[in-house]
Amino acid sequence: MSAFDENLFLKGLEQRKATLGAEYVEANLAQADDLTKPFQEAMTAWCWGFGWGDDTIDAKTRSMMNLAMIGALGKMQEWELHCRGAIRNGVTQDEIRAIIHVIAIYCGVPQGLECFRAARKVLETVEE
């Protein structure tokens, strides 16, 4: 018996690929093993299908919210991933800068600097 709703999983898979890139998502799922596969499936259904699948908030706004929250948590590998996704969802460099300013104000200047380092790394790859 599956731990998730198949339709929610498929909806989430579509949104996850649209935001993070199909290549990344497919590689992530392909690398899942007995330990991580149930989590990957549930996270795709719950986070991406249920959370991102609600049309009340558009994908660009969700990406901006994610950057703020993940930046506040200091999870920089995830922040880079979601920064790339945010750009795919239409978030501009100026908006990324403004989000980082808020992170620095509420979470501290060192965390803001970490976000700027990560943003520069991401922006350098998409500006080429």
Q: What features would you describe in this structure?
A:
- It holds the Pfam family CMD.
- InterPro entries: 4CMD/NDH-1_regulator (IPR052512), AhpD-like (IPR029032), CMD-like (IPR003779).
- With 128 residues, this protein is mainly alpha-helical.
- It has 2 domains: 6-51, no CATH class; 59-126, Up-down Bundle (AhpD-like).
- It has helices spanning 6-20, 22-31, 37-51, 59-73, 76-88, 93-107, 109-126.
- The chain is globular.
- The N and C termini lie far apart (46 Å).
Outline:
It comes from Pseudosulfitobacter pseudonitzschiae. The protein has 128 residues and is an all-alpha fold.
Q: Which radius of gyration do the C-alpha atoms yield?
A: 15 Å
Distance between the termini: 46 Å
Shape: globular
Name given to the CATH homologous superfamily of the largest domain:
AhpD-like
- Compute the number of strand runs: 0
Biggest sheet descriptor: none
- Give the helix proportion (percent range): over 70%
Secondary structure class reads mainly alpha
- The total tally of domains equals 2
pLDDT averaged over residues = 94
Strand percentage, roughly? under 5%
- Secondary-structure element string: HHHHHHH
Give the assembly state of these chains. single chain
Corresponding CATH architecture of the largest domain? Up-down Bundle
How many H/I helical runs? 7
The CATH topology annotation of the largest domain reads as: AhpD-like
Domain Carboxymuconolactone decarboxylase-like: 39-120
Protein name: Carboxymuconolactone decarboxylase family protein
GO molecular function: peroxiredoxin activity
InterPro entries: 4CMD/NDH-1_regulator, AhpD-like, CMD-like
